[in-house]
Each structure stands twice: as structure tokens, then as C-alpha cells.
Amino acid sequence: MSVLEEVLLEEYDRSMRVIHAIQAEQKALPKGSVQEKLIGGRKYLYLQYRDGNKIRSDYIKESDIDNIRSGLKKRKDNDKALKELKKSIEQIEKALGKDLINEHTTETVY
User: Fold this and answer.
1) Which helix (H) or strand (E) holds 107?
2) Residue 46 main-chain phi, psi, to 5 deg
């Protein structure tokens, strides 16, 4: 195996580990968006997200809004990073071929 193939395989392994770590982190982060509703002249904040075919709205306490917003931003950043990592993995698979990667990854558990 050439040095270039070894480097690409190491990058493939690293990318897969990072993808699995990000996906695990995504499970703990809130999903959806913060919506503001005016009820009786007062402003209330809700976290809206899809639950199957239904759209759910959960009230957000004022003390929790910063945590929710930072969690939503982190989720968006993670989604962007996942997209870039998956693109990188596709390029490595094209360069090495899936046979060589499958040979190597049978030994590695992510």
C-alpha cells in the first residue's frame, strides 16, 4: 500500500469517527426553530419542530431561551460540518475505490 493510500485511509477513518461523534451529539440538541407568538398583548416564545407528520410547539421559559438558541445554532453548525465530511468521504471513496476501503474498514469499528 502506498503512502498516499495510507494517508487517505487515515483521513477516512478520522472522518467516520467525527461523523459518529457529531451524530451522537445531534441527538441531545434541540431541533426546530424558535417562534414568537403574541397572546393577549404579551410575547411568548415556543420551540416548533416536526414530530412525524405533526408540528409540535413547546413553550420556552425565558430563562431557557439562550440555551435553546445556542443549541439550535450548534445543530445548524453540526449539519454543515456533516455535509462537508460526507463530501470528503465521497471523494476519498472515489480516489481509493470502495473495495480497498471495505477491506480496511472490516477491521475498524466506529
Assistant:
1) none
2) -130, 145
